[in-house]
Amino acid sequence: MAISEQPIGQWLKKYAPEAFDLVGAFAPELGVFQVIRHLIQKNDMLTPRQRREGLSLLLENENAAVTNRWEVDAGASWLTKNTRPLVVLFVVIIFAVLTVAAGGGALALSDGYFTLWEVALASVVGGYFGLRSLEKLKNRKAQFRTHIEK
Fold first, then answer.
1. Using CA atoms, how far apart are residues 54 and 65, in angstroms rounded to an integer?
2. Partner of 20 for a Cys bridge, out of 12, 37, 75, 105, CB 3.0 to 4.6 A?
3. Tell me, what's the pLDDT at 30?
4. Containing domain of residue 121, as a range?
5. Do 48 and 107 belong together in one domain?
6. Region 131-135: what's the mean pLDDT?
7. What is d(CA 15, CA 20) in angstroms, rounded to the nearest whole number?
């Protein structure tokens, strides 16, 4: 689905048509959300309220794109379903082994590599569990709205 077909695309068309002209035909999978974020933040024609609204809408679209990718992965093969959990497990195990080895003196690991694994650990674990938590909260919110409307 192209950006022009998503809520952020409609918002861009209304408030930042020059940005819409640049990114409207792109698919979210191409990393266009970062370009849109930059265009919104640097657009002097937008009011602070419009900028906040656009960035909020962009975040919702980014989360929906991640959720859609996970839903597609869930219906695929065993490897596709389990790639993300296996990557989390791999990074956690490597970090633990490196920490024990460096702490026991068996391995002299430079600070650069240790920092690299720290960042990888934080990114992978935070991305996996953080986004899943946001997804669950979003689903609960939708269920609550449905329950209220009945």
1. 16
2. 12
3. 52
4. 77-149
5. no
6. 71
7. 9
